[in-house]
Every structure is written in structure tokens, then in C-alpha cells.
Amino acid sequence: MRAGLFSIVFGTLFNFYLSISMVYAEGDRQDSVAVTQLETYLTQVQENARSDREWGGGILLGLGAASALGGVVTAITGASAEVPISLGVTAVISAGMGAWIRSTPTEQETLPVQFREMPETTSDKVAQKRFLGETYLALLGRQAKRNRLMSSSLDVLLGTAFLGWYAAENQGNNQAANSILLYEGALFSVFGLMGLFIETQVEVGLKNYKLGVFPVPSGGVASLSFSF
């Protein structure tokens, strides 16, 4: 009788222990999978951010060179006294911003590096790494949206200013300098409008991660969903 009762109690406790162990093991497995997916995603964020930074800085450097050229042409022809100075200031600002952007890594590049360097020696550290990775991802997504809207709005304003400047100067004889104003105004306006309506890859990726769609080399796969 006692042996049978002992067997029942022991069996119940053992099954309970196995159930709890399986729950913890499943939690550890999910943390490990999430960390792997986060590392894949954040690495893509880093690579895209580096490419965007280099291209964006290069475009500003090009605009600075175009403005400088327009200022030189205007100064040589002597058609306007104000335009060369204005174009020179624009050239310095654009070139300075372009050089700074190309030489300064953003958090979209530095945070993924910090994430990859976090240890995974214990299950607690893996869980902590997952938490921080999701925190980094949410932070970068919010920053990307804010920066996109701010920079795109500024581009539209600059484009409108250049086009207004072109319209005001269009009565003059210096068509070469006026054409540069037109091209710069059109470029700033087009890029600004595109930026206002097209989400960045970081924003899209954050939405996909919340839905449980992870980036992998062969394509997206569905997994767990998360909320921030």
C-alpha cells in the first residue's frame, strides 16, 4: 500500500519536474533562436546603414561640387554679384555635411557590433542578449522613422528654396548658374518627397520582426512574434 502510494507521489513529482524542465528548455531554445535571428537582422541593418551613409555623404559632396562650379561660372561671367557668394556658401555647407556624414558611423552601425560582442555563456546571458537586441531593434526603428521624416522635410524645404531662387534669377542672363539652381532644387525636392512616403529598411524590418518574419540569406521565414 505504502509502496504504491510512494510510486504515485514519486511519479507525479517526476512528471511535474519534467514538465517544468521542458518549459525552461523551450524558453532557452526560443531565446537562442531569437538571438540568432536578431544577429542576422542587425548585421543587415549595419551593412545597409554603412552603404546609405556613404551614398548620402557622396551625394552631398557632389552637390557641393556642383554649387562650387556654378559659383565659379557665375563669377567669371559677371552676370550676378550675389549668386556666386550664395552658391559658394551652399558648396561649403553641402561639402562639409557630406564629409562629416561619410566619416561618422551612426548607431545603426555601432549597436549591432555591441550586440554581437555580448556573451552567450549561460542561459541567463542569452536571455539578456535577446532582451537587449530587441531593445536595440526598437530603438533603431524609432530613430530611423524620426530621422527620415526630419531629413526629408528639410530636403523638401531646401528644394523649394532652390526652385524659388531659380525662379527669381531666371530673368538674368546667366543660364548656366540658373540651370544648376534648377537641378539642385529638383533633386532635393524629389529625394525629400520620396523619403516622406517610403519607409527605411530598418522600419520595415522592425515591423517584420514583430510579425515573426526574420531575414535569412535564403529568404524570410515565419517564427515567434514579439511586441515592443
What does this structure look like?
By secondary structure, the protein is mostly helical. The protein has one domain. 83% of the residues lie in helices and 4% in strands. It contains six helices and two strands. Strands 1-2 form a two-stranded antiparallel sheet. Helix 4 runs antiparallel to helix 5. The chain starts with a helix and ends in a 6-residue tail after the last strand.
Summarize the structure.
By secondary structure, the chain is mainly alpha-helical. The chain has one domain. The protein has helices spanning 2-77, 82-103, 107-116, 123-169, 175-197, 201-211, and strands at 213-216, 219-222.
The major beta sheet can be summarized as:
2 strands, antiparallel
Strand content: under 5%
Structural class: mainly alpha
Q: Report the principal-axis shape.
A: elongated
Instruction: Report the uncertain regions.
Output: 13-27, 217-228
Tally of alpha and pi helices:
6
Q: How much is the radius of gyration in Å?
A: 28 Å
Alpha-carbon distance between the termini?
55 Å
What's the average pLDDT?
77
Number of strands: 2
Give me the side-by-side strand order of the main sheet.
Answer: 1-2
Helix content: over 70%
Number of self-contained structural domains: 1
Elements, N to C (H/E): HHHHHHEE
